């Protein structure tokens, strides 16, 4: 055991000879018993030593001038750290019972009478030194146990954290598996309808009405597929922070009213009691994204409310916020699902019939879009069968000043009055898509040149000089951006009208398209009305088509 770890014995005596005699006796057994001896000539010096060291035992003379042994013992035991140090009193006379009581009241552990018998001194000291060694061993073991306990606690917390992370990952993986299954279901339904309708058109016995109905189905299901893809892309963009808001003053009452008109026009609100209270309130936001928010909330209420149910839609203000609330009397939200209702891919219990349908991303997209506008969204429900309510809070904005009515601008095509249709070059590597678009353009009288490759498309444009080029961005050879740059750099084709066709619809994608030299950016799928409008013609379809 190191010297610094040995138990210490303090001998206190004002008589130099007695002090020397006692310390000399104790030094004889110091190595054998394993302790260190310190000395003090007064009670005050003893107190200073106690402040500096811990002692296994103190051998204290009773009769000292100034502060006697009893007073010194009382002062030592008043200090918390030294309160338990055993004290052996040394006295030159046989203490009577009163003195013994007084000594024990001051914390005495034992008595020694002078002349001190060495064997007795050795025996008494050895007991307290052994006790001090045992206490030190227990203290060290306690420290080790405490350290081990801390290590085990930390290990247990780490294991619990890893278990929770693994369980969360498993839940997330399970949710993604369910989502992929739902996505497959949601994609196959319209694809099946489109495939059946296309087959019906080619059937020998199909009459004109059946063919018309089949075409309507194809158009409607194609739009449905487009909405699914748009939802997926919008969610991905919102989660990665790539949605750029085109902010402007928006009256939420007018916007939500327009959304409701769309639902009514499509027959979605039939069979429901729709209560509306839309007070005019303005926000600074992106009208397209705000319409997505309102549409998703209303669609969610319709989807999960049985026919005959009630849906309340209100817009109001509270302090500096505009509140949009959609409350329904539908199936409600279970208490365990409520905290996760805005998480990605969460849709409640999944059943084989998939009566409600959907991908379970609408509410997550709502939350992301609302947060991009600096707002918040919350959901409440009394539980299963108790209906649910969703509340959107957006920063309130001042209503804009009334602007002068814009002058009407006639479409370029109506001003031209040219009977001949402009020649169109279609550069698209997807064979079916290229053939369908070329066929539609041909039906409307447009001469069409076709190319499936970027380099070949540039060569055709240079050789034939068409009026318009419809260019896909993702092309073999060189991409659509490079096609546009080369056509603009060539004096012969520099003035050609260039329209980009792409599946990417972000503001950043549109910026890249325009920087490359395109005049217009169309996002696939492009319907015939949109395409003809880009070519300068009014829509050939009635407003209610589709």
UniProtKB/TrEMBL annotation:
Residues 182-398 form the Histidine kinase domain. Signal peptide: none annotated. InterPro entries: CheY-like_superfamily, HATPase_C_sf, HATPase_dom, His_kinase_dom, HisK_dim/P_dom, HisK_dim/P_sf, Sig_transdc_His_kin-like_C, Sig_transdc_resp-reg_receiver. The modification 4-aspartylphosphate is found at residues 61, 472. This is histidine kinase. PANTHER family: HYBRID SIGNAL TRANSDUCTION HISTIDINE KINASE C, TWO-COMPONENT HISTIDINE KINASE. It catalyses: ATP + protein L-histidine = ADP + protein N-phospho-L-histidine. Residues 128-172 form a coiled coil. It comes from the Bacteria. It comes from Massilia suwonensis. SMART domains: HATPase_c (SM00387), HisKA (SM00388), REC (SM00448). Its EC number is 2.7.13.3. Keywords: Coiled coil, Phosphoprotein. Residues 8-129, 423-539 form the Response regulatory domain.
């Amino acid at each position: 055991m190191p010297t610094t770890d040995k138990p210490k014995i303090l001998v206190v005596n004002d008589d130099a000879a007695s002090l020397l005699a006692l310390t000399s006796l104790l030094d004889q057994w110091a190595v054998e018993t394993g302790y260190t001896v310190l000395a003090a000539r007064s009670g005050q010096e003893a107190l200073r030593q106690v402040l500096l060291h811990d002692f296994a035992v103190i051998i204290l003379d009773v009769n000292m001038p100034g502060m006697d042994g009893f007073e010194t013992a009382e002062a030592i035991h008043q200090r918390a750290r030294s309160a338990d140090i055993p004290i052996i009193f040394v006295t030159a006379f046989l203490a009577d019972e009163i003195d013994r009581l007084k000594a024990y009241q001051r914390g005495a552990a034992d008595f020694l009478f002078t002349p001190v018998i060495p064997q007795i001194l050795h025996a008494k000291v050895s007991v307290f030194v052994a006790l001090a060694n045992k206490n030190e061993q227990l203290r060290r073991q306690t420290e080790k146990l405490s350290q081990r306990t801390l290590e085990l606690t930390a290990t247990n917390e780490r294991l619990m954290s890893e278990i929770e992370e693994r369980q969360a990952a498993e839940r997330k993986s399970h949710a993604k598996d369910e989502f992929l299954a739902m996505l497959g279901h949601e994609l196959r339904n319209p694809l099946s309808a489109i495939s059946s309708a296309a087959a019906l058109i080619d059937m020998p016995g199909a009459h004109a009405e059946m063919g018309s109905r089949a075409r309507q189905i194809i158009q409607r299901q194609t739009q449905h597929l487009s909405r699914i893809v748009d939802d997926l892309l919008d969610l991905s963009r919102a989660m990665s922070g790539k949605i750029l808001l085109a902010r402007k003053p928006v009256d939420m009452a007018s916007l939500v009213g327009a959304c409701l008109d769309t639902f009514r026009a499509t027959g979605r609100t039939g069979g429901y009691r729709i209560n509306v209270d839309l007070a005019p309130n303005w926000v600074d936001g992106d009208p397209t994204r705000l319409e997505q928010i309102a549409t998703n909330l209303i669609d969610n209420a319709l989807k999960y409310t049985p026919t005959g149910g009630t849906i309340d839609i209100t817009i109001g203000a509270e302090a500096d916020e505009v509140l949009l609330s959609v409350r329904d009397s539908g199936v409600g939200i279970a208490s365990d699902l409520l905290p996760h209702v805005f998480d990605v891919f969460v849709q409640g219990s999944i059943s084989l019939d998939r009566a409600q349908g959907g991908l379970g991303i609408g509410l997550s997209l709502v939350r992301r879009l609302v947060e991009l506008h600096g707002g918040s969204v919350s959901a409440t429900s009394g539980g299963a069968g108790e209906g649910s309510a969703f509340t959107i809070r957006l920063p309130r904005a001042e209503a804009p000043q009334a602007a002068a009515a814009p002058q009407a601008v006639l479409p370029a095509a109506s001003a031209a009055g040219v009977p001949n249709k402009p020649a169109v070059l279609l550069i698209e590597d997807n064979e079916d898509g290229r053939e369908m678009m070329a066929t539609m353009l041909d039906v409307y009288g447009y001469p069409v040149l076709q190319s499936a490759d970027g380099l070949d498309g540039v060569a055709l444009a240079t050789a034939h000089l068409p009026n318009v080029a419809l260019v896909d961005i993702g092309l073999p050879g060189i991409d659509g951006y490079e096609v546009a740059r080369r056509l603009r750099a060539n004096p012969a084709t520099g003035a050609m009208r260039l329209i980009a066709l792409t599946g990417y619809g972000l503001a950043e994608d549109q910026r890249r398209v325009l920087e490359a030299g395109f005049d217009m950016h169309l996002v696939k799928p492009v319907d015939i009305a949109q395409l003809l409008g880009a070519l300068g013609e009014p829509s050939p379809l009635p407003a209610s088509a589709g």
